[in-house]
Records
---
Amino acid sequence: MHDAPSPRTYATTFIAVLCACTAARAGEPVRYAIDPVHTRVMFEIDHAGFSKAIGTVSGSEGSLLFDAEDWSTAKLDVAVPMQRLDMGDANWAMAVFAPRFLDVKHYPQARFVSSEVKQLEGNRGSVCGELTLHGVTRPLCMALTLNRIARYPLPPFRRTAGFSATATLKRSDFGMTSWQSLVGDSVELRIEAELTRQAGDAPAIAVEPNAH
């Protein structure tokens, strides 16, 4: 008769199987959800040649599927609540919310859905896709920097990914052509984003339909 395997043998086998499963999953894309508190969209636009008007938007939501070893598998879907735009002054914000510009009553969200993500050199790359803004959808590419992927140092210690992105667009491409003698056409975008790893699928984006 053969001796029964010892508890130590069972434990060793279990650890070996667990390590094998972990190795098999290594390199697979990880699903992250945008942290709306630590994610901010900023834009700059010329104000009559005197200065650059600056606005920020908080509260974005969305998901990212990302493998740090293979950026080409990444998929990004983000919704930005335009009604949360902060211009630093309530009256100025109301002017930007008006129909001549963002028309947030009819177009409360901007949305970006990626079609291609590339790693160019080191932690830098690009993400291209379609931006829907003011009811118009146009292609947009952004320069992308992966800042860090690590466990967040405070509870609940979730694995967190941090990115920075920049892009330039024309507001006239999205149907916003009013007051061109006062407000510039070129818009500089800067995005600082943190995303937390999800155990399963990230929550679906609550897309708000455009009102007509």
---
Amino acid sequence: MSDAVLPERRAGLLERLAAWRDRTLADPRFQRWASGFPLTRPVARRRTRALFDLCAGFVYAQTLAACVELRLFPLLRGGPRSTNSLAPDLRLDPNATERLLKAAAALDLVTARRDGRWSLGPLGAAMLGNPGVEAMVRHHAMLYRDLADPVGLLRGERRETALGSYWPYARADNPAELDRDQVADYSALMSASQHLVAEDVLDACPLDGVNRLMDVGGGDGTFLRAVAAHAATPALILFDLPPVAALARDRFAEAGLSNRAKAVGGNVFRDPLPNGADAASLIRVLHDHDDDDARAILRAVARALPPGGTLLVAEPMSGTPGGAPISDAYFGFYLLAMGSGHTRTPERLREMLTDAGFGAIRERRTRRPLMMRLLVSRRND
């Protein structure tokens, strides 16, 4: 028997075993037996809980949304409080307050104390330390509307979506012509969640030796302001759509950075990027774009950098251990509703970087890889 036949037979056996396993797990009689047999009972219960969590996930998310909308977590910042003392501040009657608090406690957002009062839970306390998460919770009201008909969204039957209107550059024929009011809301949302991203990027790659950094798609300049606070060396250039660049100029002026940081407006698909930078960054940019546009952005950056110039690509990536619910489920549907983009594996991004003229590609470890990973590369000679 040839060596080539063995892998094929092995693969066929594995496929048959997988098919048998799937049929067995789907059999109600097996499920009933597994839930009672001592050795399989713990696994069966975990699977039952996981399946119920999938079914109830929307209710969990809406419980969090109610806590955010009613500002429950700031009310508990000062210490434990009773149901009756919270009710007037929440503008709810005591029964509704109790219902909300029990639901929040079940999700570790608050904690029920033995004396009958309520305090912050581990996740509620984390919410207070992450204002960007609160901003996303409020923002998700639009995503919920778009996902009311997920099949219609997948089939392309939803021509207009709330997220498509919120992120107008994703579908605009000429996004450079958007006005300031059309970009202000989404720029503020990105800024609210950009602080932690900036910290993680700079922890992983301190930008030692960089003289001039260009942030492409840099929004209102949150990342570059973090760079300025982190290191006194690099001069800073921001490139984004003209109305977004105007917002960034205002933020730079407010931070006293007008002499060090400049914001240039343009369309990355039509206008050349500013020259003179020896490093560039794409912070949560490529995953917002489909492949052709992402390639065009990388080529534009390569043209603007000198040989040996550094490029940082930071964004959520597929294939991250334990991160599939974020990259493939959450971002998969979010970007579909938005109208553009998808997450990519590091391997896929390496291929795209190589095709655009970058080499020496390596990954730098970040503190929160589930939310963001970082690839650093250099433009080829």
---
Amino acid sequence: MKKCLILLTNYYPFHKGEEYLESEIKYLAANFHQIYVISTMVSNDMRQTRTVPDNVIVLPVGIKHSKFRKVNMLVRQYRKIHKDEEKKIMIKEDSKGKFLPKVYCYYFESRSMEIYEKVKDKLNKYDFRQYESITIYSYWLYVTARVAVELKNDFFKDKKPNTISRAHRYDLYEDAAPLKYLPERDYLLNKLDAIYPCSQDGVDILNKTYPAYTDKIQVERLGTVSTGVVSNTRNDKLYIVSCSVIRKVKRLDLLIEALKELENLKIPYLWTHIGDGPEFNNIKKLAIKKLNMNNVTFTGFLKNNDVLNWYKENPTTVFVNLSSSEGVPVAIMEAISMGLPVIATDVGGTREIVENNVNGFLLNRDCTVTDIINCFNSFYNMNKIKYDNLSKGALKTWNTKSNAEILYSRFAQKIAERSE
């Protein structure tokens, strides 16, 4: 049976981000005859940065990201939407008539339809009659999911495709969205055949908010591959590492306040942050102002393999993540896969992979500097037996809940079988 997979991403395999797919794609390729990866946010001047299996065709949409393009898109698509009575009613009901959510919903629908038109043009060049089944897989429960539904309803309507979506963080947690609102939730959940949040926390939130669709919603975790790297530490100081895109939600400013207190307490440490992002300059300036920079290293952006090599070549005592919102952080999964204990905030699905006194310490979302210092003190004064037990706990948790080989092979087989 010739099975085809349409995989809708934001940027993968271009640019950066969506790192999980770098591991998942080979398992998908093993279960489908042909895969078409549609990179919906890729502009014409971006280059492909990651390799894909031989049976994967990459189709960048070629979006222009200028403000002029966005305004032009909104005007053009708004005219079309405004002539569609069903869409107008859906948007009014979805936004509950509130002005800003309504504007947001119009923008969301406009952007989705703009991308859909480009996707349709790309797919028209291929003969899909050769496939006995088609699966449409949106990596996000957001614009890509809306495009997936339109492909199901329009382009592939005669093929009756199985249409699914993953869900992570920004595309899932409405309370963390700027307007406490995400557009077309009910519509997407109704039209999709299955939704797979990456954490049980995500499943619980969707089930609570949209109980009519509980039979469609099931956790499917993301994972990391075994690196063969085991973290090592030294007793002379705390070797603290964090790894993330530098955004406000990551609360590196709070970590800096805790590190400042470590200096006041005369506790020796070395903090390394791996990653860059929109707040990079602000965080670096804050570190320069507050900390002794002999104790601080910013590596900037590193590719995934370079991150793993960094762990191999440098001592590490503990990984820290103080985010105010998360799905299930890949950086924590990478850390525990190397036996590195973790200090993390209890947000999103983090509690599913970080457990107090098993593989580290889980803090309240609104933790204080004192709470963080207490954890650092515990690691600084910890004996080898206790530390080794936390390291073993980290490895055990990773193998049980974050092992990509187990998770992705099972998931790829599962979605392939759904199309039979």
---
Amino acid sequence: MTKLQGKIALVTGGSRGAGRGIALELAKAGAFVYITGRSTGLKQAGQLRGTIDSVCNEIVENGGEAAAIHCDHTNDQETERVIRQIAEEKGRLDILVNNVWGGNQLPIGLEPFWEQPPAHWSNMFESGVRAQLMTNYYAVPLMRSTKDSGGLIIHTTFWDRDKYTGNFYYDLAKNALIRMAYGLSVELAADGIAVIPLSPGWMRTELVLEEFGTDEEHWQEVEALKNTESTAYIGRAVVALAEDTGKLSLSGIPQQVGVLAEKYGFTDSDGRRVPAFLMEE
């Protein structure tokens, strides 16, 4: 029996990228995984990228358990409906991965703030920060009612020792997620629920692979991708945290996937232990 057998997980924004990698790894570890997002059907029209249904199918075909729920997390009623469905079907929620993010709808450039389009605010804060906040709002009462869970809330974000990322809106949004996790870690400490902001390195998401004209089977042929990591890597970090009975000691503290790989001894899908991503000085 795997260590997460009987655990119920929710991964928001789980159709592709980090969300897909996390959902797949949680299912491999034995958890029942709910996957939410806006992309439905077994194939997204005109694109190679996944959907919540294709990820759910992938999990089931590999012997795992999952359910896909269509949800636009900018709509509070839809978010509440997701948590209500989980409560009705499973009666508990042990692992919440706040991964939904709308910040890539515009190019994230390095121009100064006053030259950046203000639309970044709604993309990153309404579709990202607020969407994650409201998922917490509806999910936390259910998680608190699961007294024996040793619960875990993850916020996928970016962090490199408080360095400025170079884009004002992106930096502000990602640090807001980190601070949100910290505040929740304080408020949920008595409930035994760890809240951890988790930062991956440069991931080979579907979008990155498309931009370089390659795929997950041939990325090694592209020199520029030599230091990248698969989306399974962050998934394995989430599993390691979920399995750790001492994870409360990390609650509220930003964690990097590469550092956790050293701590817990897991590797990426190709057997490498990719170091934590560090920005240039």
